[in-house]
Amino acid sequence: MHIQELILRLQRFWADRGCLIGQPYDIEKGAGTMNPLTFFGALGKKPWNVAYVEPSRRPADGRYGENPFRVYKHLQFQVILKPSPAKVQELYIESLSALGIDLSKHDLRFEEDNWESPTLGAWGVGWQVVLDGMEISQFTYFQQVGGLDCRPVSAELTYGIERICMFLGGYDNIFDLTWGEVKTDEGVFPITYRQVRQREEFELSAYSFEHADLNLHRTLFDAFEKEGWRLLKDHGHFRSAYEQALKMSHTFNVLDARGAVSTTERPGVIKRVRDLASSCAKAYLEHEEPSTDSTEDTDSKTKIAGVAK
Amino acid sequence: MSGTRTFLLELHCEEIPARFLEPLTAELELKLSEWLKANQLDLAAEDDNEATSFSIGLYSPRKLTWEVLNVPVQQPDQTETQVGPPQKMCLDAEGQPTQTGLKFAEKWGVDFAAVRFEQPAGKKEPCAVVTLTKKGRPTKDLLAEAMPGLITSLHVPKAMRWGNSEFEFVRPIRNVLCLFGEEVVDFTVDGVRSSNSTWGHRLHHMANPAPVEIQRPEDYEAALEKAGVVVSFDQRRTRMEAQLHNLAKAIDGRVVMDEELLDTLAEIVEFPMIVRGEFPKEFLELPKEVLVTSLKEHQKSFCIEDAKGELLPFFLAAANRMDDPAGFVKAGNEWVLKARLYDARFFFAEDRKSKLELRLDKLNSLTFQRDLGTYREKSIRIRDIADAVARKIDPGMIDDLRGAAMVCKCDLRTLMVGEFPELQGVMGGEYLRLEGKTNIWLAVKEHYHPTSADDGLPSTPMGSALALADKLDTVVGCFAVGIIPSGSKDPLALRRAGQGVVRILWEQAWAVDVMELARIALGVVGAKATKPESDTLQALESFFRDRVAYQLEQAGYAGPVRRSALPVGWSNLVDLKARCEALAAFAEDPRFASLAQSAKRIGNILKDEAPAETFESTVLKQAEEKALAARLAALESAPDTTTLLTTLAELAQPLEAFFTAVMVKCEDAALRAARLSLLHRLRLAFLRVADFSQWQ
Predict the structure, then answer these.
(1) Which residue is closest to B14 within chain A, CA to CA?
(2) What angle do CA A87, A90, A94 make, to 5 degrees?
(3) Cβ separation B346–A67 shorter than 8 A
(4) CATH number of A213-308
(5) Tens of pLDDT, residues A88-98
(6) B188 and B144 together in one domain
(7) Same domain for B511 and B395
(8) Residue B600 C-alpha, separation from nearest chain A C-alpha, in angstroms
(9) Which positions ≥6 away from A210 have C-beta within 8 Å?
(10) Which stretches of chain A drop beneath a pLDDT of 70?
């Protein structure tokens, strides 16, 4: 199955089951969880079902477009269901059938795999879903996001698009996948993953391993952090502040891919991202669901924070 | 109503992590049996019951199940006695009830006439006593009341919430089956109401949407097997083991067995099936350890080897279903494995592009421990400690050993060990072998051993010496910077490393003092130490003494042998082992029990004395003390431990006679001094082999 067909089918499936179809968020990120549709959506009491594709960048996984299995950027298909429905596993299994997987002939297992994102202050328990020995999805019940308990609990389903495509088609090389077909007056032209992505993989790998200016990235990391706190503290703006946390996270990943962050430094740097992200989560909840025992509104809080600074 | 029934409880959940299945099952099994006992619903064997109650715990990825057989249908009536105030407070002078007496009767809801006066055990006077009879209740009702509490009392290490509920459990509970005989035990857990039905394998329910009804607990396992679930772990394991062997045999091979992996496989499927797949032959270029580890860690698969122990290009993986009708399961596993092996082969080729030793400088950026520095620094310390060790045991190996020490940690910087940390040592050894370093590769490969009590030592003396130096550096270095295991806290597994040091000396029979080695290692750690040397040595002494005591226990010596041999010297393990061997022959000898008594008395008598080393035997008067003195020479001149112990055994009776007849601390100063000296000399002779006062 083509990449785009897989995505379209997943979107159709989840839209039919009461999900909003979201869009990728236009800032570099390591995983679909970081999209505000999930990060903020998983917080608070209101029901929230959403599904979307998220291109996910992992600078350390870059292989210059030469490794048949590993890439700098891959596509995640992300589904959030809040509260987690009682038949969530059955729903997930149905979605596989929608992709044309006849489960009466395959081996499906849910093996323990707990998820944690130290940069987001988030963790959950769940499984990796294994089809005929291949991990095709990650399944998580969020317990905390931004350091806050999730009540109710969301279920997060993450499909690895390329992997599933390769597996279904028996491909041994990710670049041999077909993205889709271009039809023109001259005919039909199948377009491969190689045509769409290989050069990008090569350049972005080279960038993370060789060309990225480390001093610039260190400076950027500090600047994004400062900017984030300024937005949050002076203006009470958690959405724009959260964008800064995302930028910090990606900047850190670039530095990390170069081995520019020592083992001892690492936890401290990660904590700086987490602190900002967690404060954004708190501010979001205060904005969405002001606690009943506190009469002050968000504006007066902002002013107090502003004065205190 | 009479008779017994079988109780059945099944919690059907979303997939429970394999590691929690057995502990959770065992815990509720225990709690159930305690609850049955507390409610007098337990038919115990010692009460001469025809049928006794017993429980069975079953589990599969989605099920936790308990069966208890022979549970009485009705709780017996229970009588209990309540004791109240003393008689004199309950009855006045005329024998009429007082206010206190009436209140006591009222408290237990009985008429005062039912109150008796008797003296209960432990009381000094007669007190008011009532006997209450509680009507036994139907077991089914009791079970229904108790189950929710018992289930929620389970200790779940990584509990989770789901949906809108505040309920916490290991994974969401989706169905509860609970029967007592043919009747449903009716209760609710987190909104799920118990019933007499459950769910089988997901595949089964694709064709059969209705749940599986269980009429009687006795039908449970068979009904579930029909629905695609073998709910007994033992059954799944046994069947999988048989399939593994058959599938290997069919291609003239045998399974590279791994009990732990088989356990895991039996825990992650509901129906046991093994599939055999193939991988391209060219991957057999990889070292066997790499293939076995990669298959196990990434794909939970077994390797197959031929009669010579060479791997065959096949693997065995588990599937959670009964068959593989389209061959998808086999093909899928083969596809994934190929991807994994492709990675492994890439790492192997990349790693071999440069010599192992060239990674030494890269170890500069790999921290061993903050205060102790990098792995490069550790390598140098291992070399210096190994050098000193070699000088004591075999100076011939010094050069090779020094060379091995400098490369033994280099594989930590290889891609392969980055991917599979458990291949540390193995990869270094393999890469050295391929570089043609014939004299050191095996020592490097095996230098992490022994990794546990069941694991063997490195197979060569050089490997053992290298392992010894590495472990000494780890233990002594950490102690010197204040990292000392205490209680359950031992994050760097120093106890295991220390045990390795002791076992190597013990099994290699190297007569080197452990504490001397520790002092050498401490010297090598040098300025890295942050704690005073005397504190470190003191802590190390007590640490290694504990390790040695454990070694004696592991070696199977009886308590008296261990307790008495250790106090007179433990740091030279060869000497200690020889003494223990000799003592072991007397472990059951009653004369030694008597000797132990005498040794204790000698210890007490000499406690605050300063006896002279020599005495005039002519001063001694009584026959018993002269007899003892006469044997002293033989004892003191015994040429070896066994002779000494034989002589000692013969001394038991004379010593007993001495203590019966002789009053050591007599008035006559000269006589007293001579007696004290005699005992002192006897004790010194004992202590050459053991402190017998610790024998019992």
Answers:
(1) A89
(2) 135
(3) yes
(4) 1.20.58.180
(5) 999 999 999 99
(6) yes
(7) yes
(8) 56
(9) none
(10) 263-264, 292-309
